[in-house]
UniProtKB/TrEMBL annotation:
This protein's record includes keyword Lyase: yes
Family: Belongs to the DNA photolyase family.
UniProt cross-references to Gene3D superfamilies, sorted A to Z: 1.25.40.80, DNA Cyclobutane Dipyrimidine Photolyase, subunit A, domain 3 (1.10.579.10), HUPs (3.40.50.620)
InterPro entries: Crypto/Photolyase_FAD-like_sf, Crypto/Photolyase_N_sf, Cryptochr/Photolyase_FAD-bd, Cryptochrome/DNA_photolyase_1, DNA_photolyase_1_CS_C, DNA_photolyase_N, Rossmann-like_a/b/a_fold
Keyword Transcription: no
Cofactor or coenzyme needed: FAD
Species lineage: Bacteria, Bacillati, Actinomycetota, Actinomycetes, Streptosporangiales
Gene Ontology MF, one: deoxyribodipyrimidine photo-lyase activity
Protein's name in the database: Deoxyribodipyrimidine photo-lyase
Length: 435
């Protein structure tokens, strides 16, 4: 009897433990993706666009192995059970995931399937180290990164699984069409310069990154204008790349050690979210912060019209690319929460509606970290906007790239146009006094 492999955010064939186990068993395999009504409604259009690239690429990959991707619409649990009835499948394999939605979905699937004597098995693959494998003595998760990092380094990683050589599939099954124009639905803008998705693209980016640029990461990674980070976050978000395969390949290159550490940050937030699924809604660490309802400040921030160039550059990069450099994410999030005192959830929701890599654990975990309600050991960290601007964009090149009104502003004027004489035409005065 066949095994259904339910794909969710693991849209690849290389190092896919749930797929590899099904293929190894020698039984027929039915790869399934359900375009879940709830997910489609809530997803950012930029992520639906990425998904629209990733699904045909996955189908192509599976076809090369003699298989196919069955695509269905509706509720994931209902559609999986319907396909099980159609094919006689008595096993469902899927990758374990941590968000509240994913955990509820897996629990519902398990309950409904087991009532029909269908066995559901969850596999690793969404993180390098699965939540629960690096656990402190006497606790269920690490609350602080550095001890987590030490434990993470000490975990024995599983060996990456090669893509199956061949899949045996049941015949006579209607695979269903991969939906066209997915990004017509969903929330948020469709960014003109968003990244293309899919396993082939992702592997091309990974090879290029590991081949050369990764070695400069430590020195250039924080330089906003250099744009010298991997840009693999959306590929990891959709599982078009295996985080384990990436981390294992990077670990073989000594110069890539700082990059490997960043991948551990991703796992860190995932294990926090597994233990605290309310991460996108509630303070992880309760603090009495007097948040302000500054709707016009929030709107200016979203549009990149705060009059503070480094903030506006970051926010406009987000709208233009569905991506923002990590340093700019830190600066823009700190501006909103620490200067405007707008609640972290409002900022997190905006990021989540635009980012191609938007991920519940990483996005809201980082927002809470910046706001001081999360896992930062120094929640009252001071934040000097102009110092950040000058340090991480010393020539103002990042600012000029994304804020065309300041294209002619040379040197220091790019950071502080309010001091320019005569004033820069068409650019707003700063929302707050930034001197
Ligand atoms: P690189 O610098 O090349 O890093 C490699 C990978 O490590 C990234 O792709 C990512 O998977 C992981 N990583 C790096 N830094 C972090 C971090 N601080 N937390 C978690 N993972 C990290 N990342 C997301 O993937 N999705 C999000 O929704 C997200 N929201 C964020 C919101 C805020 C306010 C902040 C400050 C950070 C957020 N990040 C998020 C983390 C980080 O900014 C991005 O992962 C990174 O900018 C992506 O670019 P890159 O792939 O070039 O990263």
């Amino acid at each position: 009897r066949p095994t259904i492999v339910l794909f969710t955010r693991d849209l690849r064939i290389c190092d896919h433990p749930a797929l590899a186990a099904a293929a190894r068993s020698g039984r027929p395999v039915v790869p399934l993706f359900v375009l879940d009504r709830a997910v489609r409604r809530r997803s950012a259009r930029n992520r639906l666009s990425y998904l629209g690239d990733a699904l045909p690429a996955l189908r192509e990959g599976l076809r090369r192995l003699g298989g196919d991707l069955v695509v269905r619409f509706g509720d994931t649990v209902d559609e999986t059970l319907r396909l099980a009835a159609e094919t006689g499948a008595d096993r469902v394999n899927l990758s374990a995931d941590v968000s509240a939605f994913a955990a509820r979905r897996a629990a519902r699937l398990r309950e409904a399937a087991e009532a029909q004597r269908i066995r559901v098995r969850e596999f690793p693959g969404v993180t390098v180290v699965p939540p629960g494998e690096a656990v402190p003595a006497g606790g269920d998760h690490y609350k602080v990164f550095t001890p987590y990092w030490r434990a993470w380094e000490g975990v024995r990683w599983r060996t990456p699984e090669p893509a199956p050589k061949r899949l045996e599939v049941p015949s006579g099954l209607d695979p269903g069409a991969v939906p066209q124009r997915l990004a017509d639905s969903g929330t948020g803008p469709l960014s003109p310069h968003r990244q293309r998705g899919g396993e082939v693209e992702a592997r091309r980016r990974m090879d290029a990154w590991l081949g050369a640029a990764c070695a400069d990461y430590e020195h250039a990674g924080d330089d906003l204008a250099a744009d010298a980070t991997s840009r693999l976050s959306a590929d990891l978000r959709f599982g078009c790349l295996s985080p384990l395969e990436l981390a294992a390949a990077a670990r073989e290159r000594t110069a890539c050690a700082p990059f490997v550490r960043q991948l551990a940050w991703r796992d860190f937030h995932h294990q926090v979210c597994a233990a605290f699924p309310d991460l996108p809604r509630r303070d992880y660490r309760r603090r009495d912060i007097a948040w302000r309802a500054d709707e016009s400040g929030l709107a200016a921030w979203r549009e990149g019209r705060t009059g503070v160039p480094i903030v506006d550059a970051g926010m406009r990069q987000l709208l233009d690319e569905g991506f923002m450099h990590n340093r700019a994410r830190l600066i823009t999030a700190a501006f909103l929460t620490k200067r405007l005192r707008v609640h972290w959830k409002r900022g997190g929701d905006h990021f989540h509606a635009v980012l191609s890599d938007g991920d519940i654990a990483d996005n809201y975990g980082n927002w809470q970290w910046v706001a001081g309600t999360g896992n930062d050991t120094r929640p009252n960290r001071s934040f000097n906007l102009l110092r950040q601007s000058r340090r991480f964009d010393p020539d103002g090149a990042y600012i000029r790239r994304y804020v065309p009104e300041l294209a002619a502003a040379a040197g220091p004027d790019a950071h502080t146009p309010w001091r320019a004489d005569p004033p820069v035409p068409g650019y707003p005065p700063p929302l707050l006094d930034e001197d």
